[in-house]
Design goal:
Length: about 325
């Protein structure tokens, strides 16, 4: 990690830019603000401070010999001569939450309510824990089992179990782990992070869902829909005004899934300083990555849990 600060003559901090070097022999070297997250990029009081931060980031990228520097802005476009290509195909899908679960139930469509009722009819149940409490019992183990199987099925290297342990430790009561059971077996799971906001803040309190998975063989239970309704209710209980479903490409299956809950797209703008190669080389739809994804789907789950964490840390 790197943190670039812009300071005024009087010593005040007037801008900052967090960056992470993502490097591996398999994929190459990249400088990203911020990797694994939906948004990052430059925060500044002025365009002059923003330009200075970009200049320093470009110099750092040259020192580290990266292929590109990726700025994951939130609906902001910087006018800078070293910034060339940009991507605007991803949208954060955000739902404004009502005051209570009963109102939420009324505002979703009849189709959604029927799918949630299906989960009730087959006897789904949910277990919750937050912070270090999630380490006790089998909750984090059951979460990771579901998550790792789902990632293999998607063709994506899995994060290490230790990452989720550290998230729960670091965020404490602001991180919830949920596991959905069917006939005594965990079949769906999710991690929630609640963004506690001071009353004077000029933004809404929100809940994000960094990770959510369900096992395909149990699709007939509608466990994913049933779980997401409980996740939304949990966010309301925690006082959140918004639920951030994460980013999706417009028109994709995940985009339609999030939209059916009433979530609306918010633009994301990713700008690049491209030094070599192409900005799409790491995208799943790139021909080279498609071949890797199809091979990954055929691996046994135990092997993906073993080598996945070694690979995923090199993917920006």
């Amino acid at each position: 990690p790197y943190l670039l600060l812009a300071e005024a003559d009087d010593g005040r901090t007037v801008g900052y830019l967090p960056l992470v070097l993502v490097a591996s022999r398999l994929f190459g070297r990249f400088l990203v603000s911020l990797s694994y997250l939906n948004r990052g990029g430059v925060v500044s009081e002025s365009e002059q401070a923003a330009a200075a931060l970009v200049d320093r980031a470009v110099a750092l990228g040259e020192e580290l010999d990266v292929s590109y520097i990726e700025f994951r802005h939130h609906a902001r476009v910087l006018d800078h001569p070293r910034l060339g290509p940009r991507r605007e195909d991803k949208h954060r899908m955000v739902l404004s939450l009502p005051a209570d679960g009963q109102t939420l139930w009324k505002q979703v469509s009849a189709k959604v309510r029927n799918q949630v009722r299906k989960g009730d009819s087959v006897g789904l149940s949910i277990r919750w824990a937050h912070g270090r409490d999630a380490h006790s019992g089998r909750l984090i183990d059951d979460f990771y089992r579901v998550f790792s199987i789902n990632m293999r099925d998607l063709g994506t290297p899995v994060f290490p179990r230790g990452l989720f342990r550290r998230i729960l430790d670091r965020f404490g009561r602001d991180a919830d782990l949920a596991v959905v059971d069917y006939q005594g077996r965990p079949i769906a799971a999710a991690l929630l992070v609640h963004d506690a906001v001071a009353p004077a803040a000029r933004r809404a309190a929100s809940t994000q869902v960094p990770s959510a998975s369900s096992l395909r063989r149990y699709n007939h239970t509608n466990a994913n829909m049933w779980m997401y309704y409980r996740l939304l209710c949990r966010a309301i209980e925690r006082g959140s005004e918004e639920f951030d479903f994460g980013r999706s490409s417009e028109g994709s299956g995940t985009y339609r899934f999030k939209k059916q809950w009433g979530a609306l797209p918010r633009p994301t703008v990713w700008q690049y300083c491209l030094r070599k190669g192409e900005i799409n080389a790491m995208r799943p739809d790139h021909p080279r990555q498609r071949r890797r994804i199809e091979r990954w789907k055929k691996l046994p789950v135990w092997l993906t849990r073993l080598i996945g964490p070694l690979i995923v840390k090199g993917i920006p």
